[in-house]
Amino acid sequence: MADRYLRFTATAPGRFLTRRLGLPQPATLRRWSPEHPGLDGPLLHLTAGTSALDLAPVLDRTGLPAGDRDPAAVVLDATGVRDVAALAEVHAALHPVVRSVRAGGRVVVLGAPLDPDDHHQSAAQQALEGFTRSLGKEIGRGRTVNLVRLDDARAAESTLRFLLSPKSAYVSGQVVHVAGHEPTAPEDWSRPLAGRTALVTGAARGIGEAVATTLARDGAHVVVLDVPQAEADARRVAERLGGTALLLDVTAADAGARIAAALPDGLDVLVHNAGITRDRRLVNMPAERWSPVLEVNLASVLRITDELFAAGTLRPGGRVVATASIAGLAGNAGQTNYAASKAGIVGLVRALAPRALAEHAVTVNAVAPGFIETAMTAAIPLFIREAGRRMNSLAQGGQPVDVAETTAWLAHPASGGVNGQVVRVCGQSLLGA
C-alpha cells in the first residue's frame, strides 16, 4: 500500500504544512539500483584518538572519492578512544560536519572491542553506542548512523561497503561487531554469490521473494521453498530467477531430510524466512493460535538447521540467516506468541553462532525487521499502521528489499567476521531500539 503521507510531504505544500504543524517530515530514501549503485558524493574520513587501523585501502575500494565538502558519507575512526577525555575528540570531529552531510547520507562510527582488563576503555567505547544511537535519532533528512566494532579493517570490508551504500537505506542506529577474520574476497564484488546455492523458506511472496530476488542478483542459484499451497507463486518466482522450486511444509517431520535430499551437492546460504502470525491478546488466545506460530517460526528453524548441519548439507564458508523481529526484542501487545517465537530466534543465533563457526566454518546471524510495507501490514487498521510507519528515526515504513539487502550482506562470502549478530532493519525504531 502506498504511503500517501510520504508522498504529500515531498510536495511544497506538504513540506510547508507539516513544518508549521511540527509533524514528521520523512525524506524519500534512495535504494540500490543498477543505475545508481552508490552514494552521490565524497567520503570524509575522520579520526578520534590514536588509531592503528589501516583503513585507507578498504575505504578506497568503496568507490567513494575522498573529500570534505558536502560529504555523502563520513567515517569516524574512534577505535583509539580509550578514556572519557578522548570522547571530546568524537564531538570535535563530528560537530562541525554533521550539518553538511548530504540528504540520504551515511555516518559510520568505528569502535574497538571492549577491553575486559581496562574499565576506562570499556566505558569510553560503550559511550559510543549511546552517542551513535542518539545521533541517528536526530540527524534527519534520510541520513543513517551506525557503529561498527572491529579490530581488523580487512574483515569489515563487506560491512563497510554495505553501510556506505544505498543498500543500507533502512538500517540505522545499529551496532555491528566484526571479529578478526581472514576475509574471503569474491572475484566479482557485484556478484559475490556466483557459484553458490541459497535456499530461502517462505520465498513465494513478500519479504521472502525479495530476499530470493536479491540473492539471485548477487549470483546465487536460489531454491525457492514454500508450502504446496503456494506452488504457482513459488514456481513463478523460481522461473523468473532461474532457480528451483521446492514445495514442502517446514513443520513436517521430514522437512530437513527432504531439503538435504534435494541438495546433494550441498548448500551455501540458508535463509529462514517463513513465518506466520496469529495475533490475539493472551487472555483471548487459545492453544490453537499459540502452537502454530511457535512451530513455524521457531521449532522448524531449530529442527531444520540441526538436521542440515548433521547431514553435512551446509558447506564450510556457509551462512545461516534467520528472520527475527523487533517484536521479539521490544514486545508487542497482542503478539505474545509471535514475540516469543522471534525472541527464540535471537537465542538460537547467540548460542549456535560460535559453535557453528568453530565446528562447521558457518556463520549464524539474524535480521530483525520493523515495520515493513507488505500485504500483512497493509491489513493493519489505518491509525495503527500510520503509527508503525512514523515511530522510527526515518519516519516511514521499510520495503521488503531493505530486509533482502541486509540478508545479502550477511550472506556475503566476505562477511565471515560477522557472526552471532541480530541486525534490526527498522529505520531505528523509536521504541526498543
Largest sheet: 7 strands, parallel
H/E topology pattern: HHEHEHEHEHEEHEHEHEHEHHEHHHE
Percent helix: 25-40%
Q: Which sequence of strands runs across the widest sheet?
A: 8-7-6-9-10-11-12
Mean pLDDT over the full residue set: 95
Family: Belongs to the short-chain dehydrogenases/reductases (SDR) family.
Protein name: 3-oxoacyl-ACP reductase
Organism: Streptomyces thermoviolaceus subsp. thermoviolaceus
In short:
By secondary structure, this protein is α/β, with parallel strands linked by helices. It has 15 helices and twelve strands. Helix content is 39%, strand content 17%.
Which tags fit this structure?
globular, five-stranded parallel sheet, seven-stranded parallel sheet, Rossmann fold, 3-oxoacyl-ACP reductase, SDR_fam, 433 residues, 39% helix, alpha/beta
Please characterize this protein's 3D structure.
There is one protein chain. This protein has 433 residues and is α/β, with parallel strands linked by helices. The protein folds into three domains: 1-29, no CATH class; 31-177, NAD(P)-binding Rossmann-like Domain (Rossmann fold); 197-425, Rossmann fold. Helices cover 39% and strands 17% of the residues. It has 15 helices and twelve strands. It has helices at 4-9, 12-21, 56-60, 84-94, 119-138, 157-163, 206-217, 231-241, 255-262, 287-310, 326-330, 336-360, 375-378, 382-390, 400-411, and strands at residues 43-49, 73-80, 106-111, 144-149, 175-177, 197-201, 221-226, 244-247, 267-272, 314-323, 363-369, 422-425. The strands form two sheets. It has a seven-stranded parallel sheet with strand order 8-7-6-9-10-11-12, sandwiched between helices. The longest helix is centred in the C-terminal third of the chain and has 25 residues, at 336-360. This is 3-oxoacyl-ACP reductase. Residues 196-370 form the Ketoreductase domain. Belongs to the short-chain dehydrogenases/reductases (SDR) family.
